[in-house]
Design goal:
The structure holds four protein chains of four kinds. Chain A starts with 12 loop residues before the first helix and ends in a 5-residue tail after the last helix. Chain A has three helices and no strands. In chain A, 73% of the residues lie in helices and 0% in strands. By secondary structure, chain A is mainly alpha-helical. Chain B is α+β, with helices and mostly antiparallel strands. Chain B has two domains: 94 residues, Helix Hairpins (Orthogonal Bundle), CATH 1.10.287; 148 residues, Sandwich (Immunoglobulin-like), CATH 2.60.40.420. Chain B is built from four helices and ten strands, in the order H-H-H-E-E-E-E-E-E-E-E-E-E-H. The two termini of chain B are 45 Å apart. Chain C is an alpha+beta fold. Chain C folds into two domains: 136 residues, Cytochrome c oxidase, subunit III, four-helix bundle (Four Helix Bundle (Hemerythrin (Met), subunit A)), CATH 1.20.120.80; 94 residues, no CATH class. In chain C, strands 4-3-2-1-5 form a five-stranded antiparallel beta sheet. In chain C, helix 7 runs antiparallel to helix 9. The radius of gyration of chain C is 24 Å and the shape is elongated. Chain D is mostly helical. Helices cover 61% and strands 3% of the residues of chain D. Chain D contains 18 helices and eight strands. In chain D, a hairpin with a 2-residue loop joins strand 6 and strand 7. In chain D, helix 8 runs antiparallel to helix 9. Classes of the chains: A mainly alpha, B alpha+beta, C alpha+beta, D mainly alpha. At the B-D interface, helix 2, helix 3, strand 7 and strand 9 of B face helix 5, helix 7, strand 3, helix 10 and helix 12 of D. Bound molecules: heme-A (HEA) (2 copies), dinuclear copper ion and copper (II) ion. Copper (II) ion binds next to helix 10 of chain D. The site of dinuclear copper ion has 9 residues of chain B, from loops.
Chain lengths: 113, 277, 291, 624
């Protein structure tokens, strides 16, 4: 630990990146198309009766989650993001689900007669 | 156990007047002993260290400091005691408060409706059935919005401010509120519960002492909050019957007259603020 | 000393400053919309049967707006990619399209969808009077189908004065199609295409009405959440458009000449924000338009 | 890159920047500054003024509690004339005004006093220096953060002057009370206390969010060469966790505030159930909302917020203790871990403020358990501080006096949280003065003392001068005594069953006429109030000392406390850009009394010598 780790900026990384980028462009277009398709799919599925309202909500949320995942993973480059960003997001996800889940639980378990 | 309780008395806790109250007192007194022990222990250590290691007595500090694992043991002990209090006392006690409601048949069931700034009590009357209430029907002469078209409401009693209950009987109070959140708090009975508009929340207790007790509103509800005082009178069974009879007679010819508790407290504004804020 | 890592990455974290900053900001945005969506869940769970409306919003328009946002998300990554490859003209074009998409989204929302709601009228019928309006509501049919009841009559209000004038005793409503033919099974589910209020007029006695307003936030908790969440989302879109415009105008060109990588980073950061706004919409759309 | 090249490079840099900044005018330099140190001082001064204001509001309340309904001499009429008869009617406080004072005392102390001072001011001034950074990562955002805070604070102040007065629903603004507050004849949609409170709050939240992003990004990105995570001073860790709490807990409250604002200005019913009857008339609303939703969203922030109030304080105390015991903090690693766990858990305990809202067994068991668990890291942190004293060579400098007092005071406050955490005990204690005493022990003789310690400790860095020792002691001892004289009796009042937010101080209540320790519950109010006013007097030496020392304090060198962390290698006051050469950290933050050295402190920038014994450095690493 006596030698401090280097903190010098890296410069040549960018060239490297630019090369990669051109390969991705096609991918972005495909993902855009997929998203449009999923949008049409949700609209369609919302007119299909899955038995209960709850089931319909669940189906729609699954599709929305897939779409959101695609946006985050591809457009927001989470597929190639650094560990640190993941850490921040994991905690955020835990807390936001904690908020939903605990409020739901409190709603579900009141003192009633 | 009584000898342990002196810590609560020392701090001014009033006498308990309900059947479950002693359990609440126990958990508070255990907490206080536990906290007291930690506080005294740490304080003794603290004062000793400040004296022993002051600069003039200990000019050169030790780089290492304490190496023993004493703090780990201490922390473990704290965890253990808290776990015992939690699992052994607090959780079961709460479960009994909110799940083990006494049977309606052998309990006195009362509805309490909070408003800025007093309590209305709704009793089912001789037929034992509560009449329907509707917010749209609320008026000055009908403070809880009792529906006169409902046959069950004909013999219902509405009393303001003061509630009588017989001693040694389970009492269930179903709390509601017309406007903002209030809290029906009976310090002597060791019981309290929020009255939240839109919800009806029950609470129960069993008074074991006769007497007159204050009902505190334990939630800020506006400018008259400090004076929102109710009265709980715990009667002997005979007195209770007499009170009930008197109430029924009164309700026969006029709608409920203001009970003592409904008189605005000294210093309360004469005209209420429309916002109530 | 100058602030390091504004353009290039810090080796041990692999990130430049603004990237860390924007993700932290997005994390807080997740919590912000999380709070709003938890309110949505809470209010919807609490709603009495019949009090959470379905199918009131215009699905094709909403779908179109979703497509616009998705397209703009694609163009904004393409703009960024163009910068990375140092193709400035392409960047200008893609960014221009993105800005146009954002503006289009806002125009649809503010000039069409919201005003259309403000001009719509709904009256909640008192429980005691539901029977009287059965020909419009068709609750017996709904009951037999196991569907939630209707407690509200909606449509086009012909006598606007009635809202304020106490001397007018009833509302004159050009009914929405559902109420003209309530027992037709076709009406059990909302229409896909928007069908305007019909010419069939119903007179609703004010004495039978609990509450009647235009489709404003006050109308019910559904519209309260709808306007609040889409309003806040709209503000985000507006913010994004402003930032993009700033990066698109001469400022962008100047920065490009000085340090193209810096501009690329800014576009990436603004783009991340934009994608997040898109992502929120992906949930808003089914929750409000479809379910 | 070797050391010599880095030196010359940086010297060059410094030359440039120094040159640039000669031309800055007064406004750019002190008002619209982007320099983290200036912003830190702006936060400090504004925050202290608000702290003082919160204190004044409280002193007014204490008059009413001690002498309910009596005319307040001189000031009473003055306030009545300034704020209208709705506040002080002929010198007598009205219940509305009492409620306003309570709500605004809480709001101002927490959001305009402690957060700006303990978090924003110290964080801004100290954190970049301690990690060896030239500034915050986003200086302009930093400036915007202060400006949002300032405007938010001004809006809160203005709210005292609108008809009806400032917000009166408590700092918690529970709905429906807050939703319907001030509405009535002559209701102005915007210019009323509660609405302004909400608008001001949105700005304060914006400020905190911007600040939090900046702090986290700075700590992640701008640590100096060699400043690994486990070499960060504990203060930086505390600020890091605090920033995360603000970042993730504030937005849900922000959403709730937007909703309450909608309820008030757009007539929605997010928090209003169906069938409300206020003052005998049915309210015309759609209904269908939920009052409990507000409480959930409020306490989702509310609880993390209390750790926001205490963590920076703990950080300051850690620095001062290490420095004045002349030895490393005991258990650095467990301190860091405890702070992280504390931060994590504080998100899932919020409902312990809502025991009496009709909560079932399952949910309350969950929240009781998490609340119990969260007390463990606090115990660990406090124990580590206590044990750190052992074996030290303790100097009772003024910062150290305040830091030492912090420990038992926080201990009392923390310990009394335990009965509150058991819902069955809270059944009795909820909303009584016991709760008031519990948290004031933490925030007043706790955090405020830590803040004082920090001011005395870092004053020489900001000004190049020390505050006067003698007057510091004159400030300390009466403050300590008064604090306890104020808050200890409140436990007794609480145990008697006296409730908070009582305008009459309990005069009208039989339960408050019971005697405890020689006085009735109500009559205890008087000695408490006297102690509170005496404490006001005890602050005078501090205020004078503070302003006097800026110009006339004893001049000191760049490291007057002989401390080890990086901020003490920068000039006092540090120039724009902070360090003359980019600092490099070679060791942990608290290398005091290393055996075999002439000096009893070894700075983080001192390279490890070949023959030196392996430094006392934890191996755990959280990143890389
Ligand atoms: C900085 C502020 C702060 C902190 C740190 C805490 C810490 C804790 N708080 Fe407190 N709390 C508040 C501020 C704070 N609180 C406020 C403001 C309110 C009221 C809000 C309102 O309603 O307006 C409140 C209310 C409050 C309630 C609700 C009460 C009610 O409304 O009825 C509860 C209930 O569980 C609670 C519990 C706790 C617990 C278990 C801790 C634990 O984290 C404490 C852990 C600490 C310890 C266990 C101490 C350990 C010390 C030692 C072991 C050493 C002892 C040594 C010596 C004494 C020498 N608090
Ligand atoms: C950080 C939070 C904080 C702090 C520090 C304090 C500090 C104090 N508070 Fe407060 N208080 C609250 C937060 C806080 N309070 C909250 C949240 C409530 C609940 C509100 C509600 O009901 O909604 C409350 C309520 C409350 C009540 C209950 C009112 C009621 O329920 O009716 C009382 C009663 O005595 C009280 C008293 C005090 C006292 C005596 C202090 C003293 O300790 C004050 C000490 C202050 C100082 C020593 C100031 C020092 C500063 C300076 C000297 C500035 C120097 C200036 C320059 C150099 C420019 N407070
Ligand atoms: Cu009712 Cu307080
Ligand atoms: Cu808490």
């Amino acid at each position: 630990m006596n030698n401090p780790p280097t903190t010098e900026p890296v410069d040549h990384e960018t060239e490297h990146y630019a090369h990669d980028v051109s390969k991705h462009v096609r991918g972005y277009l495909i993902v855009g198309g997929t998203l449009l398709f999923f949008t049409a799919l949700t609209v369609f599925l919302s007119y299909v009766n899955f038995g209960t309202q709850k089931a319909n909500v669940a189906v729609a949320m699954v599709v929305a989650t897939i779409k959101a995942g695609l946006v985050a993973y591809i457009f927001m480059h989470l597929s190639a993001e650094k560990k640190l960003i993941y850490r921040i997001l994991i905690f955020t996800a835990i807390f936001v689900f904690g908020l939903f889940w605990l409020i739901y639980l409190a709603w579900y378990d009141p003192v009633v007669h | 156990m009584t000898s342990l309780a002196f810590i609560n008395e020392l701090m001014g806790m009033p006498g308990n007047a309900s059947a479950h109250g002693y359990q609440i007192d126990h958990i508070i007194e255990f907490c206080h002993w536990f906290m007291g022990a930690l506080f005294v222990g740490w304080s003794a250590f603290f004062i000793f260290v400040l004296w022993r290691f002051r600069k003039s007595r200990n000019p050169v500090a030790s780089h290492e400091g304490v190496t023993s694992g004493i703090s780990t043991h201490l922390e473990f002990a704290v965890v253990l005691i808290e776990a015992v209090l939690l699992i052994g006392f607090a959780i079961p006690l709460w479960a009994k408060r909110v799940n083990a409601f006494p049977d309606n048949k052998d309990a006195i069931l009362v509805h309490a409706i909070g408003q800025q700034f007093n309590w209305n009590f709704h009793l089912p009357g001789p037929d034992g059935v509560f009449g329907r209430r509707d917010a749209a029907l609320v008026s000055n002469s009908n403070p809880i919005g009792l529906d006169p078209s409902d046959p069950a409401s004909k013999d219902d009693l509405v009393v303001m401010g003061e509630l009588h209950v017989p001693v040694d009987h389970n009492v269930i109070i179903e709390l509601a509120s017309k406007d903002v959140i209030h809290n029906f708090c009976l310090p002597s009975m060791r019981i309290a519960q929020d009255a939240i508009p839109g919800l009806i929340i029950p609470m129960w207790f069993k008074p074991i002492k006769t007497g007159t007790f204050e009902v505190v509103c334990g939630q800020l509800c506006g400018l008259g909050h400090y004076g929102m005082k109710g009265t709980l009178v715990v009667d002997t069974p005979d007195e209770y019957q007499a009170w009930l009879k008197e109430r029924i007679e009164l309700s026969g010819n006029q709608s409920a007259p203001p009970a003592p508790g409904a008189v605005p407290p000294a210093g309360a504004p004469k005209t209420a603020n429309p916002g109530g804020g | 000393m100058e602030i390091p890592y504004t353009v290039t990455a810090r080796p041990d974290t692999g990130l430049w400053n603004a990237k860390v900053g924007i993700w932290l900001f997005l994390a807080s945005e997740v919590m912000l919309f999380g709070g709003l969506f938890s309110a949505y869940i809470f209010l919807r769970l609490d709603a009495e049967p019949g009090y959470w409306p379905h199918g009131l919003l215009n699905v094709p328009v909403g779908t179109g707006n979703t497509a616009i946002l998705i397209a703009s998300s694609v163009t904004v990554v393409l703009a960024w990619a163009a910068l990375k490859m140092r193709q400035f003209t392409r960047y200008k074009i893609y960014m221009g399209i993105t800005i146009l998409c954002g503006v289009a989204f806002l125009v649809v929302k503010l000039a069409y969808e919201w005003p259309q709601k403000f001009e719509h009228f709904g009256a909640y019928i008192k429980p005691s009077a539901l029977e009287k309006y059965e020909p419009y509501l068709g609750n017996k049919h709904l009951l037999s189908e196991g569907l939630p009841p209707r407690v509200e009559i909606t449509g086009h209000l012909h006598n606007h004065e009635a809202l304020h004038d106490a001397s007018i005793k009833d509302y004159e409503v050009g009914l929405d199609p559902i109420y003209t033919d309530p027992t037709n099974p076709k009406m059990d589910r909302p229409h896909f295409l928007y069908v305007p209020p019909t010419e069939k007029i119903a007179h609703i006695d004010k004495a039978d009405v609990d509450r009647a307003t235009m489709f404003l936030p006050t109308h019910n908790t559904y519209f309260a959440t709808y306007f609040t969440i889409t309003g806040l989302h709209g503000l985000h879109v507006l913010g994004g458009v402003i930032v993009f415009t700033y990066l698109w105008l001469p400022f962008g060109s100047r920065l490009y000449r000085q340090n193209p990588e810096h501009l690329a980073n800014r576009v990436e950061v603004a783009g991340l924000f934009w994608h997040f706004v898109d992502l929120v919409w992906i949930f808003v759309f089914p929750l409000f338009y479809l379910l | 890159m070797d050391a010599s090249s880095s030196v010359s490079h940086a010297a060059h840099d410094h030359h440039d920047t120094a040159h640039e900044h000669h031309e800055l005018g007064f406004f750019r330099k002190y008002v619209f500054s982007t320099d983290h140190k200036v912003i830190g001082l702006q936060y400090l001064i504004t925050g202290l003024i608000f702290l003082f204001l919160g204190f004044c509001l409280m002193m007014l309340m204490r008059w009413q509690l001690a002498y309910p309904g009596k005319e307040l001499p001189v000031i009473g009429n003055l306030i009545g004339r300034m704020l209208g008869p709705g506040s002080m009617n002929n010198g007598v406080m009205t219940p509305e005004f009492y409620n306003s004072l309570g709500a605004m005392h809480g709001t101002i102390m927490i959001f305009l006093g402690i957060v700006p001072v303990a978090f924003a001011a110290f964080g801004n001034f100290v954190v970049p220096l301690q990690i060896g950074a030239p500034d915050m990562t986003f200086p302009k955002v930093n400036m915007a953060s202060y400006q949002a805070f300032f405007v938010g604070g001004m809006i809160m102040l203005i709210s005292f002057f609108v008809p009806g007065g400032a917000a009166k629903g408590g700092w918690t603004s529970y709905t429906p009370l807050a939703d319907i507050a001030d509405k009535g004849p002559g209701y102005d949609v915007i210019f009323n206390g509660q609405t302004l409170w909400l608008i001001g709050f949105i700005l304060l939240i914006t400020s905190s969010l911007l600040g939090a992003i900046n702090f986290i990004a700075t700590i992640i990105q701008l640590r100096a060469k060699g400043m690994t995570w486990m070499r960060l001073p504990f203060f930086v860790w505390a600020q890091f966790v605090t920033a995360f709490l603000l970042l993730l807990a504030f937005p849900p409250l922000e959403s709730a505030i937007v909703m309450q604002l909608m309820d008030r200005v757009a007539g929605t019913s997010f928090f209003l159930p169906t069938g409300l009857v206020v003052n005998g008339t049915a309210v015309s609303i759609s209904g269908g909302g939920s009052p409990l939703l507000w409480q959930h969203l409020f306490w989702f922030l509310g609880h993390p917020e209390v750790y926001v109030l205490i963590l920076p304080g703990m950080g300051i105390v850690a620095e001062v203790i290490a420095n004045n015991t002349r030895k490393p903090l005991w258990g650095y690693k467990s301190l860091v871990l405890a702070a992280l766990v504390l931060g994590f858990l504080s998100f899932i305990v919020w409902a312990h403020h809502m025991w009496l809202t009709g909560m079932g067994t399952a949910v309350s068991a969950f929240f009781q358990t998490t609340t119990m668990i969260i007390s463990i890291p606090s115990v660990i942190i406090l124990s580590a501080f206590f044990i750190s004293l052992w074996g030290g060579s303790i100097r009772f400098t003024v910062p150290m006096l305040f830091a030492t007092a912090f420990l038992p005071m926080f201990g009392i406050g923390g310990l009394t949280g335990i009965p509150l955490a058991f819902n069955s005990a809270d059944l009795y204690l909820h909303d009584t003065y016991y709760v008031i005493a519990h948290f004031h022990y933490i925030v007043a003789p706790g955090t405020i003392f830590a803040v004082f310690a920090g001011i005395y400790y870092w004053f020489p860095k900001a000004t190049g001068r020390k505050m006067n020792d003698f007057w510091g002691k004159v400030h300390f001892w009466p403050s300590l005594i008064c604090m306890n004289a104020i808050f200890l009796p409140m436990f007794l009042q609480g145990m008697l069953g006296m409730h908070r937010r009582w305008y009459d101080g309990g005069e009208g209540w039989t339960l408050a006429s019971e005697k405890v320790w020689g006085l009735s519950g109500f009559h205890w109010n008087l000695p408490i109030s006297i102690a509170a006013w005496t404490m006001g007097v005890a602050q005078i030496p501090f205020i004078i000392n503070f302003f006097w020392s800026i110009r006339h304090g004893q001049k000191v060198g760049i490291n007057p406390w002989e401390a080890t962390t990086l901020e003490w290698t920068a000039p006092s006051p540090p120039p724009h850009g902070n360090f003359l050469t980019p600092p490099v950290a070679y060791r942990g933050p608290y290398e005091y009394s290393l055996p075999g050295r002439a000096k009893d402190f070894t700075m983080q920038t001192e390279p490890v010598e070949p023959n030196e014994r392996a430094p006392h450095e934890p191996a755990m690493s959280l990143s890389h």
